[in-house]
Specification:
Layout (H helix, E strand, L loop, with lengths): L1 E12 L5 E5 L5 E13 L11 H4 E8 L3 E6 L1 H12 L5 E2 L7 E9 L11 E2 L6 E7 L6 E16 L7 E11 L6 E3 L8 E2 L1 E8 L18 E6 L4 E6 L1 H12 L2 E7 L7 E2 L2 E11 L18 E2 L10 E10 L2 E5 L11 E2 H4 L3 E6 L4 E12 L7
Parallel strand pairs: 5-11
Antiparallel strand pairs: 1-10, 2-9, 3-7, 3-8, 3-10, 4-5, 4-9, 6-7, 11-25, 12-24, 13-23, 14-22, 14-25, 15-16, 15-24, 17-21, 18-20, 19-21
Length: 377
């Protein structure tokens, strides 16, 4: 057995506000897909927010037999899953500066990690498999005809394994409380095995400034997980506690960006809880006085004082990538017997208390699934 990496589609220009569709090979065991997205910012992009690639990849799908979802996540969710499988952020260049370039790598894994060897998508078991990448970019954000996509496939060759299953990852449900002080109380599927449960508390952003209407990390919110018709309470915590619990396993995350300092426009600093943030004048700046920040730990922040440099480089440390946290049911991850048996613990229920009704509670599931439409569930 060996792994083969190939550039399947090379730097194809994609239309703004559209879905780019690629038909994948008819046979083979697909370990992973890696998307490289490359864009040129509009001038002036600083008037349009949010203006990062990950905000505007609204959905990445892998569809089999026309209507079977094999993978379906947003750009942010795809990055959040990859971060937990890799142990670090994939390469990306987030740039807030007018008339320049930014890029993003989005890995899609059908196994537990890159080059898993156990789980893989058997393309021959499906009539047709398509990759669909949807964006909502506009010319306020990008210059016309300046969105390119490079697609790489990693396949398993000459394998003696059957690869009877792949890991399906998808957004299972997205819901807001009906009103301030309301609840969201979803139930998870009642059959099969669950490898992990990832939650994204996706905040509404204020028009023009990109500020969060109400940060879901506030102590006014609470999240619960129950098994067996609420007989077993597994978690009962503030979201801030949940990202800190996960950080005991993952450690602190690191990222960076290049921004245009502003006291009015809020910038995405990636982490639900920013632990440290250092800014320096970009090397191209004539004046080297960097922007300064106050004591906020929020993901979206504006600078307290602009300084005299026009562009700045920032390094960030934090936890809770893109307002997500994950609960793994795979420690250790050597046998499916360690995964959560939904039949045994059903109903598995969540309760999200929304102090303000301006955060969408998104549920992302990861389950081992049999190959082909007859095994699909």
């Amino acid at each position: 057995m060996y792994f083969k990496d190939q550039r399947y589609e090379k730097m194809v220009s994609s239309t703004l506000a559209s879905t780019h569709t690629i038909q994948l090979p008819e046979t083979g065991f697909l370990d992973s897909i890696s998307l490289f997205l490359y864009v040129k910012n509009a001038n002036p992009i600083t008037l349009a927010t949010p203006n990062n690639i990950h905000h505007h990849i609204t959905k990445i799908e892998v569809i089999g037999d026309t209507d079977k979802t094999l993978f379906s996540l947003s750009g942010e969710q795809t990055l959040a899953k990859a971060y937990r499988k890799i142990g670090a952020l994939p390469p990306f260049k987030q740039v807030e500066v007018d008339n320049t370039y930014q890029d993003l790598t989005l890995p899609i894994f059908f196994g537990r990690k890159y080059k898993d060897g156990k789980y893989a998508l058997d393309l021959a078991q499906w009539d047709k498999v398509e990759l669909k990448v949807t964006n909502d970019f506009t010319t306020d954000l990008l210059t016309a005809a300046s969105f390119w996509q490079d697609t790489r496939l990693c396949t398993i060759e000459d394998s003696v394994e059957a690869h009877a299953k792949f890991l399906k990852q998808w957004e299972y449900e997205a819901e807001k409380p009906a009103a301030d002080g309301g609840y969201v109380r979803p139930k998870l599927p009642s059959k099969g095995l669950l490898r992990s449960l990832m939650i994204q508390l996706d905040p509404d952003l204020t028009a023009t400034t990109n500020a969060v209407a109400q940060d879901p990390m506030s102590d006014n919110y609470n999240w619960k997980l129950w098994f067996k018709d609420r007989a077993l309470t597994i978690f009962d915590h503030r979201p801030r506690d949940l990202v800190r619990i996960e950080a005991e396993r993952l450690g602190i995350g690191h990222s960076c960006l290049k921004r245009k300092p502003s006291t009015a426009t809020y910038v995405d600093h990636h982490w639900a809880e920013v632990l440290s943030l250092a800014a320096a004048a970009d090397y191209t700046a004539t004046d080297k006085t960097p922007p300064t920040y106050g004591g906020s730990r929020d993901r979206y922040q504006a600078v307290e004082a602009v300084g005299t440099c026009q562009d700045a480089q920032e390094i960030i440390q934090g936890i809770g990538l893109f307002h997500t946290f994950e609960i793994p049911f795979y420690l250790p991850d050597d046998e499916e017997a360690n995964y959560l048996n939904l039949d045994m613990y059903k109903p598995v229920e969540i309760e999200w208390y929304g102090y303000k009704a301006n955060n969408t509670h998104r549920i992302i599931l990861e389950k081992p699934i049999g190959q082909g439409p007859s095994e699909y569930a």
